[in-house]
């Protein structure tokens, strides 16, 4: 009984799989944001295709983790916020979590489509299987639109992540509740 309580979420605590999915996704997303900035600003042009290749593979793995995380979250209860949480805080928490997922998925799909419309398609495998591209037809105009969209979404995601972290710290240090602690191991 104790093992299932540690694995499954409850109405008051996150289970171990939910915590693992959260932190693995967080590390991958932070890596993707930092590496994406680095590869577009610091990488010599001659090395960019290799950098884009790595970025896309990590992005597909992040998508896989997020998809499994959403599935797990759908099959498990979500721990309730503390009773003292105000209505606006509940709405902000719900909206920010929805926005985190929405932005991560939008970034995945904009990058995935972009991988097939560049001068050369960016091939990738996930778990040993080739990732199918939406198209393999070079389209400079669409590529530019997707690249701009991808960049703007990445900056917006970074802003929402900063707000998410600040909210967790607020819960921990100012509200002195367990919202942040229960997502840790």
Can you describe this structure?
There is one protein chain. This protein is mainly α. Helix content is 68%, strand content 2%. The protein has five helices and two strands. A hairpin with a 2-residue loop joins β1 and β2. α2 packs antiparallel against α3 (48-75) and α3 (48-75) crosses α4. The chain is elongated, with a radius of gyration of 19 Å. The chain starts with a helix and ends in an 11-residue tail after the last helix.
**Poorly predicted runs of 5 or more residues:** none
Overall radius of gyration: 19 Å
Sheet with the most strands: spatial strand order:
1-2
Q: What is the average of the pLDDT values?
A: 95
What is the H/E string? HHHHEEH
- Structural class category: mainly alpha
- The count of strands amounts to 2
The total domain count is: 1
Indicate the topology.
Layout: H1 2-7, H2 16-41, H3 48-75, H4 87-117, E1 125-126, E2 129-130, H5 140-174
């Amino acid at each position: 009984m104790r093992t299932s309580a540690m694995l499954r979420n409850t109405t008051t605590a996150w289970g171990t799989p939910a915590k693992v999915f959260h932190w693995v996704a967080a590390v991958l997303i932070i890596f993707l944001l930092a590496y994406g900035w680095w590869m577009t600003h610091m990488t010599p042009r001659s090395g960019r295709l290799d950098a884009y290749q790595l970025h896309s593979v990590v992005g597909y793995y992040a998508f896989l983790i997020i998809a499994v995380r959403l599935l797990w979250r759908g099959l498990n209860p979500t721990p309730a916020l503390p009773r003292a949480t105000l209505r606006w805080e509940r709405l902000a928490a719900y909206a920010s979590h929805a926005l985190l997922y929405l932005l991560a998925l939008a970034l995945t799909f904009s990058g995935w489509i972009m991988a097939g419309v560049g001068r050369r398609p960016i091939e990738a495998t996930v778990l040993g299987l080739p990732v199918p591209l939406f198209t393999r037809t070079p389209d400079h105009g669409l590529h530019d639109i997707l690249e701009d969209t991808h960049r703007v979404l990445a900056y917006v995601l970074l802003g929402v992540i900063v707000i998410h972290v600040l909210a967790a710290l607020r819960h921990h240090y100012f509200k002195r509740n367990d919202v942040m602690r229960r997502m840790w191991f």
